[in-house]
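Form 12-C: Joint structure prediction
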Amino acid sequence: MQHKLYELAKILRSRNAGLERVTVDIFFDDYKKYQIAKKAITKSIVAKIYKKPVEHIDIHSWDETMGIKVTLPRDIPKGYPGTRDKDGTQFYIPLRDLEVS
Amino acid sequence: MRAPNSKLSECCGAGRGVCDSWSQGQEAFHEMRRQILIRQKILKRIFFDFRCGTMKEVKIYAGTCTGICDHTEEAVKQAYKWEPDYVAAQGGSTDSGAHYMGPNYVPSTGDSRIKRQFEVYVGMASDFNVPFCLGAGGMSGTNLRVEHDLRLLNEVAKEKKLKLRIAVISGEIGKEYLKEKLRKGLKIRRLERSNVISENLSPADVDICTKIVAQMGPEPMIEALRMDVDGVITGRSLDLAHHMALPLIRGFDKGLTAHLAKVIECGAMCAHPSIIRPVLASLREDHFLVTPADPEQKCTVMSVADHVFYERPNPKREENPGGILDLENAKYVQQDERTVKGIGGKWLSEPYTIKLEGAKIAGYETMAIMGVRDPNLIKQIEGVLERVKMRVHKRFADLKGQYQLFFHIYGKNGVLGEIETETRASHELCLLLEVLAETQDDAHSICAYADHQFNDMDFPGHLRQRNYAAPTAGRKDCGPLYVFNIWHLLPLEDPCEPFPIYIMDFPTDRIEFPPRKDAKNAA
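Section 2 - Result
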């Protein structure tokens, strides 16, 4: 059965990581859900969703805390003219509805 | 809060608690108890200072120091029952952006809140006669902002009748200091891959900055704490440094100390619910315990692990001045309902570098807010805005390349821009027009022209109406826009070299920072 990522995650949020990157944190409280998500969230899928080069995407995961961290470049460096999201808090949205199974 | 240092004899002449009335007796009893406590603490400190490194525990009342940390009555009450050995709080950070790096003071959290936090931190440290180590100058840590905070601290000292000798450490970096390093051939590299930060710092990068600060590590704070002072206040610093300073003097393991500091650096943000309030952290020889001070919150394994992940690209390996905090083997265990035990942090030594942050003025901004409700216009909004932009470019051809113009279309893709996938139309839109130019006058002229053009723009189905509704503050000049242009790592032989320490007595008639007299260790 297909689920969306936000239905499986316990914590799903994003924040700036430095001047020109944002990081999306995804935590689970169930190991099976964590494994499903870990398999679905790949560099190429993230690159496609965020329209960024795949080599600029970093993904780390930690089994014992059931957490995944996706780091990607921002559109505009934080605080520069035209910044939409100064603190990077809404960058998790495109991943929210990712279909995982 | 009672003033410290009041002698027992001043409280009730005999000094034996024998007084005329019941309330006087009560007061005398509590004062006697406080004096005994103070003497115990002094003896304990001398004893452990002498034995240096055998103290088994450091109890840290930890929070943040920008005025945001909420020291609730319950939290403070719990802390007083718990009896801390150390009061520590990090200052602000560049999270809030470069806006606070300008030459004038810009309020961030409000003076009354900054004063309240000093009342709690410094008052508590004074009541228990323990050292404090606080980061001031919230949101940037420049000398100007530190001075502002010191004025508020001075008021607190006067109102609470506290006599304090404080080591104040500047986190601001002089341009000449950096240019001298560059002249001597030092390579100062940028922190990370970037489209806007130069790969190697140049004198031109330094000259164009309004202010430059650097994140001092715990070393200058350690040096200051060893001086004959009641506590330490710093400008810009590493977020872990204040919490690390006293434990490192006491000989606790650096990896474990840094690990604890990482958990508590934002106070009870590591708790559930995640609110910036104080925490009570106990550092032991081979583990630490973290409990939120306010009984409404609790630390859980998930809340702590979640916070450690926060903001860093790779939380398992974090670069800090002089080393890497390796959390590969970090573990968290639920100790009781509200307390988490942590172990496993390791420190891997590296050559010492500090992070430099410098800001320049990118230009001046004017913004306009416009509410759009016409369904026909909403359907073709992007095309209409493109035509507005073309008219602006034509009208201001003489300023080509000297300005930037953005339309943020809230209700369509204002938040996510080109990565928005939602296609359902909204019945109303909010346009935020942002113009950046080299002068405020140019920014205002361009913005005014653009919003007028939009208001009058015709389009298929136009019925000669005006196109938007403006709220009262429709068009506003925003002043200078500061952006970071120094984001580099400065290698250091001596971690204290760029950070002069000044000894200042409070209360005093006149506050200026840095003070005119020489620093204790001026570079």
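Section 3 - Comments
Chain A touches chain B at residues 10-11, 15-21, 23, 25, 27, 29, 49-51, 58, 60, 62, 64-65, 67, 69, 71, 75, 77-82, 84-87, 90, 93-94, 97 (CB under 8 Å). Helices of chain A lie at 5-8, 31-40, 43-50, 93-96.
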